[in-house]
Amino acid sequence: MRSEVVRLTLVSHAMTDAMAAGRFPVDEELNALGRRQLDGLDGGAADTALCGPELRTRETAELLGLSVLVDERLADLDCGQWRGLRLDGVQPGELARWLTEPDSCPHDGESVVALMSRVRGWLADISRTPGRIVAITHPAVIRAVILNVLDAPPKSFWRIDVAPASRTALHCRGMVWTLRSAVAGQ
């Protein structure tokens, strides 16, 4: 008997002012560059289209012509008290700890390990949904998906670069996920 395949395309939301300025994100809209990044692109064929709850993911989905369901598990990494701050506005020791210790949470938000656990549960759930799924989400969520699929350690989180408006393709057969390709944004 042939097992059914889940084809998942993760789309990173387009550029925002926080990304351009090197700030921790807040719930903000796409900037002009972000809207241009999506010009002429579409969301692709999907049986199911999902997005995180933030404005930037919902706006990306809309500009890609997708009618989406919001899934809270696709929410960005919660940076707690650091929301809206520039990197240089955070105590260097706290920032270094956060970047090198994936279970740390100096901003009182969410740790990388907690994000990876959340994403692992989401992947397990959608692995039982055969067909094509498009999910508009955040670079942090896409990193966590890749690490889970590759069974890579959380300390590798910051070594993956996910460009705005990029696509990452995966497929799942019988609960086993495979990274198919990663396609840079426009």
TrEMBL record:
It comes from the Bacteria. InterPro entries: His_Pase_superF_clade-1, His_PPase_superfam, PGM_Phosphatase. Transmembrane segments: none annotated. One of its GO terms (molecular function) is phosphatase activity. It holds the Pfam family His_Phos_1. SMART domains: PGAM. PANTHER family: 2-CARBOXY-D-ARABINITOL-1-PHOSPHATASE-RELATED (PTHR48100:SF10), BROAD-SPECIFICITY PHOSPHATASE YOR283W-RELATED (PTHR48100). This is Phosphoglycerate mutase.
